[in-house]
Amino acid sequence: MRQTEPDLKDPLARIIPRLKSEEMRAKMADEARFFRGWLQKPLQIGAVSPSSRTLGRAMAAYVPLDKVAKGHFVLELGPGTGVVTSCLIERGISEDRLVLIEYSREFCVLLRSRFPKAHVIEGDAYRPGPALERAIGDGQLAAVVSSLPLFTRPEKQREALLDATLHRMQAGLPFIQFSYAFTVPVKPARIDASLATSSWIKRNLPPARVLVYRR
Predict the structure, then answer these.
(1) Which of 177, 92, 84, 75 minimizes the C-alpha distance to 135?
(2) How far apart are CA 51 and CA 142, in angstroms?
(3) Which of 9, 133, 170, 180 has the CA that lies 20 to 30 A from 199?
(4) pLDDT per residue over 94-140, tens digit each?
(5) How large is the average pLDDT for residues 176-200?
(6) Parallel, antiparallel, or unpaired for β 175-179 and 209-214?
(7) Which residue pairs, CB below 8 angstroms and at least 24 apart, start in 38-42?
(8) Quick one: three-class SS letters along the chain?
(9) In this predicted model, what pLDDT tens digit does every residue of 131-144 receive, in sequence order?
(10) What is the DSSP pairing of strand 98-102 with strand 73-77?
């Protein structure tokens, strides 16, 4: 029997057969979700594609595993489709120690399916409300890992976010943020904190660096 030839007028007919692996298909689906979300709400999504795994691993490397081993939680702000979340788990952080705050309902549904043991909160990271307290209970935070597009918010809101999250952590624990910009989103002196920056991660598109605030 003669096989049906793909319709070469449709560009997808030539592209889809090349997507051999489930990982590649999932990656492209995530990129499509991200781009669609960015088109609908650019100030909330803040990027046209998910972070790379190289960037995610660089961010995860700053999380103190000794604190997680003692039962502390890791709070992730703006996890999107879960690229950085996967890198946190890959680093050795138990899924049930992760608290994810995501604004997009579509991304929350995806995160709950991918990380069923994690605490996924649909809401605004700048105003997490009682849902965060319910997720953490009497526990403490080992780190905050943020992929929020901070520059889309006024400077005072950025400062308030970092000030509040650093205040609830023990001294020396990190607020981990990535940025594409040459300037920093929050001046550390304004929130009485220190700041360390990584080198530029060129395998991310666009290149980014990791910023680590501590108090």
Answers:
(1) 75
(2) 22
(3) 170
(4) 999 999 999 999 999 999 999 999 999 999 999 988 999 999 988 99
(5) 96
(6) antiparallel
(7) 41/104
(8) CCCCCCCCCCHHHHHHHHCCCHHHHHHHHHHHHHHHHHHHCHHHHCCCCCCCHHHHHHHHCCCCHHHHHCCCEEEEECCCCCHHHHHHHHHCCCHHHEEEEECCHHHHHHHHHHCCCCEEEECECCECCHHHHHHHCCCCEEEEEECCCHHHCCHHHHHHHHHHHHHCCCCCCCEEEEECCCCCCCCHHHHCCEEEECCCECCCCCCEEEEEEEC
(9) 999 999 889 999 99
(10) parallel
Q: Give me the residue label for tokens 């029997």.
A: 1
pTM of the model: 0.78
If phi > 0 it is left, if psi is from -120 to 50 it is alpha, else beta; for residue 22 that is alpha
pLDDT at 29: 60
